[in-house]
Each structure stands twice: as C-alpha cells, then as structure tokens.
Amino acid sequence: MVDIDSQTRTDTKGQRFEELHRALETDTHAPLYSQRMENGYRPVCGEGSPDAQIMFIGEAPGAREAVFGRPFIGAAGHLLHDLIKLYKIDRKYIYLTNLIKDRTPEGRNPVESEINHYARYLEEEIDILRPLLVVPMGRLTMSYVLSRFRVPHENARVVDMHGEVMVGQADYGRVKVVPLLHPSAALYDSRCMKTLAHDMRVIHAVATELWLLH
Predict the structure, then answer these.
(1) Cα 126 to Cα 146: distance, rounded to the nearest angstrom
(2) Per-residue b or e along 140-164, where b marks 16 or more CB atoms closer than 10 Å to that residue's CB
(3) Domain 4-209 has CATH 3.40.470.10
(4) pLDDT of residue 8
(5) 115 in Cβ contact with 33 (< 8 Å)
(6) Strands (DSSP E) along 86-204, which ranges?
(7) Series of mean pLDDT values for 10-residue runs along the chain (214 residues)
(8) DSSP secondary structure letter of residue 180
C-alpha cells in the first residue's frame, strides 16, 4: 500500500529542489556567474533522493562536474562512489552536493564572498532534506558545517578531525557530523586511501545506528 502522506512529502521536496535548481541557473548575481558563462559551464546543484537523510558535502565542483552540471562525476567523485559502494551504503540514502555551486577559476579555493553567496543554496538543501548525518569533505566545508550545526571547532583542521563523530544541533533536532578527507586527497597521496576507508566504516556505523539504511 502506498503511503499517500509520505508520497506527497516526497513530491513537495522534489518540487522545491526543481525551484532551487532554476533559481541557481538564473542567478546572474552569483559571484561566479560570469566564469560560468565564459567557459560554457553549468551550475552544479546537489543530486540524490529527496528523502535522503545522509548528506555528503564537498567544496566546489571540478571541471567535469561544471561541464555536465552534476556533482562528483570526476576522478575524486568516482573514488567516493567506489567507497560508498564498497561499504554497502545504497545511493538512495545519500544526497551529494557542494558548498559552492559553480566552478572557481582554475579550481582555486573559494573565497569568503563566494561562500557567503552560495551558502544560501546549501541552506535550502538542508532545509528540504533535514539530514540526520552530515559528512563535510574538505577544510572550508567542514568549518562551515560545524558552525552551521553549532559544533565547537576553534582552530579545527580536517586532518585532525576526520572520522570523528560529533553531535550538532539543527532546528529539527540533533545531527551527527562526521568530517571526511576530500577524496581528491587520495588521488595525490595513496596513503590517504586507508584513512578514507576507515572513516567510511565510521560513517556506515553511524548511519546504521541511526537507522538511516533501512
């Protein structure tokens, strides 16, 4: 039997995501809009089930992602997908997105004005999904997420906090936060693979504890 209320909520979330995507596409005030148009890039919104409660958040799209307008389809993304599959976390439970929704020039680190502008789209994604497990990947994203969910993190570094399970607070309740090294790190240093594998086991354990994989 179909749960009508559940289906209605899913449809409403899907509509909100569509509206969010349209808003980003037409946001001519976005700080990287001109960069997007000059290079023939596309904005990169999140991707995943509207009912997902596990949210992986990277920093900014790479070149391949910007060409196709989809998150995590480059080399680092393929590695992330392999890890997710290895630890039997079905993609239907996951939503993938980035803090910054446009590619930065030459892939440089985002600056504060860019973070401040694009964060409004991430905030809307969080508001729609109301995730119970958030996995920030990379230094800037970790800092933003820990602040967003009110987790103390003075002078925090992702190399020190990756794989650590922290408890944050949202207006809808408690949220578990588990920082992860960005998968791109393993493309430059194979030793990071062991760290990523360990931390993915932690993420799987937390997701199982919270009954997010059923």
Answers:
(1) 14
(2) bbbbbbbebbebebeebebeebbbe
(3) yes
(4) 75
(5) no
(6) 94-98, 133-136, 166-170, 173-177
(7) 62 93 97 97 95 96 96 94 90 95 96 97 97 95 95 80 94 96 89 92 95 86
(8) B
